[in-house]
Plasma membrane ascorbate-dependent reductase CYBRD1 (Grus americana), 228 residues
Amino acid sequence: LVSVLSSAIIVYRLPWTWKCSKLLMKFIHAGLNTIAMILAIVSMVAVFEYHNARNIPNMYSLHSWIGLTAVIFYSLQLFLGFAVFLLPFAPVTLRAALMPIHVYSGLTIFATVIATALMGITEKLIFSLKNPAYSASPPEATFVNCLGLLLVIYGALILWMASRPHWKRPPEENVKVLRPIGGTPEGTEVESTMTDGSNADKSDLRVTSEAARKQNLKFDEAGQRSTM
């Protein structure tokens, strides 16, 4: 969940993906989140079956409470992401209103997953290391503690990439996606067919094309660009 979810978060933030179609990136983003959700469900089923087979109580620790909460909210996040941002039925105004919530909740869930993993490995060490005990700092404890530090560093790096404005997908690339397939930049195709027209008509056409371009850019920045 940590690795696949982090890949889904930063898929828009990788510069070599900025030239790809926005729709393609949306499908990749949704696919990675779906894979992470399936793996999370499989792992939770395995945990409950293991506890039941060993007569271990379920859902008694803070690790289990926060972990289950993260999976539940992640499933809601995935459902709303499909319904609002992937399917073409939601209006632009609704996407623009939900985009900040979508981004914030995605980053919050990722941070919660990191915290859950840290609590889980600590809990496992306390229960498993008996002789020598965890407090004696055996090699296993040192190794897992280093793993926990790497998780914190990795999570901080992902959150930093997702929150920096200069890592965002450039809006100019998004405008290209709005252009029809095989089309030319706004204004050039129509203007080329008006070589016999007056300068005033050409000037009006340029103003209209520029206004349309700005409107598309505004809509895209408001409702289409996403981190999650």
